[in-house]
Amino acid sequence: PSAETVTLLWSFIVSVYSIGGLLGSSCAGYLSVRFGRKRAMLLANIPALLGAALMGFSRLCGSFEMIIAGRLFSGVCGGKLAFLPVYAGEISPKKLRGFINVTSSVFLALGKTVARVLGLRELLGTEDMWHVLLSFSGLVAVMQLLFLPFFPESPPYLLLQKDDKAACLKAMKQLWGEGNYQTEFDDLMKEKAITKGTKIMNVLEVLRERSVYPQLCTMLLLLLSLQLCGLSAV
Questions:
Q1: What is the torsion angle, in degrees rounded to the nearest 10, for the CA atoms of residue 137, residue 49, residue 158 and residue 88?
Q2: 3-state secondary structure string, the chain?
Q3: What is the reported pLDDT for 69?
Q4: d(CA 137, CA 117)
Q5: Is the pLDDT of residue 5 over 70?
Q6: Which positions, given as ranges, span the membrane (predicted)?
């Protein structure tokens, strides 16, 4: 192929991950409510495994289409970042909730750093090993599929979405040990009373809701400004 075609294909391979991320994050809210936080994360690892397999075998087949499809599926899995911090915050005790909430960003940055190191030419960034590097994310997906089933479901989800008080208390004890969690349970009951009858909006409904425009504009301004701060270059 010509140099222009190679550049076009390379650019598309790089950017298709973001397209997958957009698709994954758009349905993350529905999945987390429909299946629960834990099961939604388990489901998100399926496209990650599929994407890793496609990119791993792409070198054997000599197919750039497999790399594109693999990157797309990996991006869909990346959309689970929309509900992973929610699950981490909901299963953590109240006194540690703020600390746990920031760990998602810390480990996201750590994961990027590890990927940069593995991508060095002295390690996996070689002509013979690049397909192993691209499929490395499948290892993380396998680990999550092995260990996540042993985690309990989120107590707020069990009470607010499933209305299962017994399962909520059981999950609290399993997560935080034996003790009296009546205060936390009462807080959840108050939240349930406040949010009763509140409709969960999808992305389009949020964009049409004028009452959330100030918050939405603030979030967009912060996220867009972050792209200009030089962090990506660092």
A1: 0
A2: CCHHHHHHHHHHHHHHHHHHHHHHHHCHHHHHHHCCHHHHHHHHHHHHHHHHHHHHHHHHHCCHHHHHHHHHHHHHHHHHHHCHHHHHHHHCCHHHHHHHHHHHHHHHHHHHHHHHHHCCCCCCCCCCCHHHHHCCHHHHHHHHHHHHHHCCCCHHHHHHHCCCHHHHHHHHHHHHCCCCCHHHHHHHHHHHHHHCCCCCCCHHHHHHCHHHHHHHHHHHHHHHHHCCCCCCCC
A3: 92
A4: 14
A5: yes
A6: 12-33, 40-60, 66-87, 99-118, 130-151
* Nearest residue to 16 (alpha-carbon basis) of 71, 81, 78: 71
Q: In terms of Cα–Cα distance, which of 67, 46, 48, 73 is closest to 130?
A: 67
Q: How far is CA 14 from CA 20, 78, 125, 212, in A?
A: 11, 14, 16, 33
Instruction: Locate 128 and state its tokens.
Output: 């013979």
pLDDT tens-digit readout, 102-154: 888 888 888 888 988 999 999 999 988 988 888 888 888 899 889 989 989 98
C-alpha span between 34 and 13 (Å, rounded)? 32
pLDDT digits (tens, 9 = 90+) for 8-28: 998 999 899 999 988 888 888
The single-letter code of the amino acid at 234 is V
